[in-house]
Amino acid sequence: MDEIAKKLIERYHQNALSSEEDREFQRRIHSDADFAKEVQWHGLALEAIRLEGEKELRKRLAIKGKELDAKAPDRSTIIPWQWGLLLIVISVLGLWFISPTKTTDEPTSPVAPTKKSLPAPPPSPKSVDPAPVSPQAQTKPASIDGKKVFAAYFEPYRDASLEPSVRGSVVEISPQEHFRQLYWDGKYAAALFAFDSLSTFAQQDNTNLFLKANCLLHAKQGNAAAMILEGMLQIGHSRFVEQVPWYLALSYLQTGQIEKAKKTLDEIVEKKGGRLKNAAQLYKALK
After folding, report:
1. How confident is the model over 116-170, as pLDDT tens digits?
2. Under a CB-based contact definition with an 8 Å cutoff, are residues 232 and 244 in contact?
3. CA 168 – CA 145 distance, rounded (Å)
4. For 113, which DSSP code?
5. How many whole angstroms separate alpha carbon 28 and alpha carbon 143?
6. Model confidence pLDDT, tens digit, residues 8-57
7. Phi, psi of 232 (to 5 degrees)
8. Rounded CA gap, 263 and 287, in Å?
9. Using alpha carbons only, how large is the chain's radius of gyration in Å?
């Protein structure tokens, strides 16, 4: 694979493609099967590295916590310094109470109270109208984190009609049945690999394409999923035609294309399409 292809794959997974790079990326992924497969492999490798890094970090934090607990002193044997200070204060007060007070036989005449002048009342405060708040000083709404919203709403599509009627190993059943069995069992990463073993005809099947798009969304490859779903939306002839716009909106959210997601959700609500209730709720959350 040439250096340009490697650079395109890396920048694609960093969501850093320029307009020109994106056009070249789309051209290659549609015309070069090896390039498309490398994009998929790279995404899965990044996900595996991320999960392994989180596991190692949790392990190190647990070890560090045990070390700190072992070094912590036994606080039950330490006498706080506040108790010492309290004993000193009690001793001084005791000496003050038992010491004799000095008395005199001379009568004391009461001191005439001095007349104090009363202070002048403070001036009444003037009412001050609040200064108008300029539009620039008003708080701006927080930006929407598309990935977090996506995670809250995304669930891979499941339908009772997708449950495999035949189960078995890849040797006993066809590659297509094996692919759909992996998807039904929730093994989405393995299903992506199994999709590559399908025949050209099976890879163009709308059901298989729709399931692959769901697998890609689960693998956080929203751009690749969006390409499949956009193509299905243009064709229009599919048993999943009511579901495609919903998952297309989610793919836009995952890749940070908030306006595209809102537009797609608005179309679902306006046409009263599939997942209407979900679309209306999500559209309201994005406003």
Report:
1. 555 555 555 555 555 555 544 444 456 788 889 999 999 999 988 888 876 655 5
2. yes
3. 42
4. P
5. 33
6. 888 888 888 898 888 988 888 888 888 888 888 888 888 778 777 777 76
7. -65, -35
8. 11
9. 36
